């Protein structure tokens, strides 16, 4: 849902409302949120954070990067990837979404959750739901893609589920080579192993990525992890926070 004004302006309006109309300061933000179509200020703030997470992460990306975005189910990695695509297209670049999980209707709902419509980006958007998705398939379909294209792969662990495809380790190397050659940015969504839930760490890390087959994760330039509303961006090669 798109806000009528930036969140900082809505905060000022809430303060003005409490001073002008005698509304309690604790209540005024909820009244502003209701006007914007939300149940409470906390819901408005959460929606705003989701919409702007893509922008904050996008600022850290470079053409030619291979990025891993990992989380346990339901933590928002796919929504974040949609936000990255929106940010790229809003800046005049193209975006592509290769998915073995989502339907076209699912993708429409993702963009709707960000307050955007795919109709805004028809000339810059490519959706591929083919059963043939692999690193080679992606490189073939986007052979002529211009620099700056943001490519989402949903998701990493599904790329080698078919026996006629190269191993996951080989495909990750192929994706890296394609990112460098095309100067595109490739975002691979990734599962996080169940064992992470037994730890006390606030966010997962590379050691928690679920790998049914060996993969050299140092191939990724950066890795982003989400958990309970927290987002951490790492330099994958050093495993240090960026």
Could you describe the 3D structure shown?
By secondary structure, this protein is α/β, with parallel strands linked by helices. The protein has helices at 7-20, 28-35, 41-58, 77-90, 104-113, 135-141, 168-182, and strands spanning 66-71, 95-99, 125-128, 150-154, 185-191, 222-227, 230-235, 240-241. The chain has an 8-stranded mixed β-sheet with strand order 3-2-4-5-1-6-7-8. A hairpin with a 2-residue loop joins strand 6 (222-227) and strand 7 (230-235). Helix 1 packs across helix 2 (28-35), helix 3 packs across helix 4 (77-90) and helix 4 (77-90) crosses helix 5. The two termini are 30 Å apart.
The appropriate CATH architecture of the largest domain is: 3-Layer(aba) Sandwich
Low-confidence stretches: 238-242
Q: Considering DSSP H and I runs of 4 or more, what fraction of the residues is helical?
A: 25-40%
List the strand order in the largest sheet.
3-2-4-5-1-6-7-8
Give the ordered list of helices and strands.
Answer: HHHEHEHEHEHEEEE
The number of E-state strands comes to 8
- Amount of beta strand: 15-25%
CATH superfamily of the largest domain: P-loop containing nucleotide triphosphate hydrolases
Q: CATH class of the largest domain, anyone?
A: Alpha Beta
Number of helices: 7
The structure class reads alpha/beta
Name the average pLDDT: 88
CATH topology of the largest domain: Rossmann fold
The whole-angstrom Rg is 20 Å
N-end to C-end Cα span: 30 Å
Largest sheet descriptor: 8 strands, mixed
Number of domains: 2
Which shape, going by the Cα principal axes? globular
């Amino acid at each position: 849902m798109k806000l009528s004004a930036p969140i900082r302006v809505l905060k000022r309006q809430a303060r003005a409302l409490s001073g002008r109309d005698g509304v309690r300061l604790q209540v005024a933000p909820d009244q502003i949120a209701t006007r914007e179509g939300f149940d409470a200020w906390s819901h408005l703030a959460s929606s705003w954070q989701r919409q702007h997470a893509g922008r904050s992460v996008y600022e850290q990306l470079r053409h030619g990067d291979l990025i891993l975005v990992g989380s346990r189910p339901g933590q928002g990695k796919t929504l974040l990837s949609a936000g990255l695509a929106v940010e790229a297209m809003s800046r005049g670049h193209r975006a592509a979404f290769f998915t073995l999980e989502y339907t076209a209707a699912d993708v429409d709902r993702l963009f709707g959750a960000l307050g955007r419509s795919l109709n805004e980006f028809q000339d810059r958007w490519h959706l591929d739901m083919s059963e043939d998705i692999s690193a080679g398939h992606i490189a073939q379909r986007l052979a002529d893609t211009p620099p700056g294209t943001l490519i989402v792969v949903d998701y990493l662990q599904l790329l080698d589920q078919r026996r006629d495809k190269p191993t996951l380790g080989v495909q990750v190397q192929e994706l890296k080579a394609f990112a460098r050659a095309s100067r595109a940015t490739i975002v691979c969504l990734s599962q996080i192993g169940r064992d992470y839930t037994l730890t006390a760490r606030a966010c997962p890390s590379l050691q928690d990525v679920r790998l049914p087959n060996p993969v050299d994760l140092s191939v990724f330039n950066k890795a982003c992890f989400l958990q309970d509303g927290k987002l951490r961006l790492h330099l994958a090669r050093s495993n240090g926070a960026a």
